[in-house]
Design brief:
Elements: E1 4-10, H1 17-23, E2 29-34, H2 41-46, E3 52-56, H3 62-72, E4 77-80, E5 85-86, H4 89-98, E6 106-108, E7 111-115, E8 118-119, E9 130-134, E10 138-140, E11 149-151, E12 155-157, E13 162-167, H5 170-190, H6 197-214, H7 222-254
Helix pairs in contact: 5-7, 6-7
Length: 255
Amino acid sequence: MQTISTIVITKNEEQNIAACLESALWTDEIIVLDSGSNDNTLAICKKYTPKVKTYTTDWPGFGKQKNRALALATSTWILSIDADERVTPELKQEILQKLNNTNYAAYKIPRLNYFLGKQVKYCFNSDAPVRLIKKDGGKFSDEIIHEKLIVNGETGKLKNKLQHFSFGNIEELINKINSYSTLGATKLHDTKKKTSYAKAFAHASWIFIKIYFLKLGLLDGWLGFIIAFSNFEGVFYRYVKLLEKNLRKSYRDII
């Protein structure tokens, strides 16, 4: 018999975690791996015991943390979701139908994205990460940010979508731009990546053009502009922070 576990990594997700867990209660177990929440996240999770098994650990980065959660899961299939995501009833039925399929080691799941409470139709139209994988079908890359599931075998794609509620307000968006750009700069610095202010602006401009024009984000109205511009900011600050790290290292090397 094929079984399925859900894994979720958390930190201060009291606004999202209950709805996330409710959408995955049909799975055989839910592994929540928390990295130091100081809000009500853990208390909410414990209300769903014994279906939800909660663990607390340090924060090594997204990839390594998700591999820890993957190792804790005991089922033959693993569904990886974020706290701001929801499994719809239609997606649930499609996943259950695929569990006995031996042709694929993993599946991509398209996402229906919501931004500031509104549905985004164009900016993320190709968003379909690998989220369902056999226990022995692979693992996450070890990147500190923008991790991916590395699959050992063929990957299929589901039709029904995972709901993704990314930001509830502008403050959350700005905070994430800051934290993710710092993580991104650290990742690039670890690979000895070089940059400049001109390159920072060029990389940021390209992501704006890609989202707003090539992906037709302009058809999402002001929402599309905010998404494209926030991505511009995130990429620009990522490379500016990298430049800052490189200059600081060069100064230390001189003295």
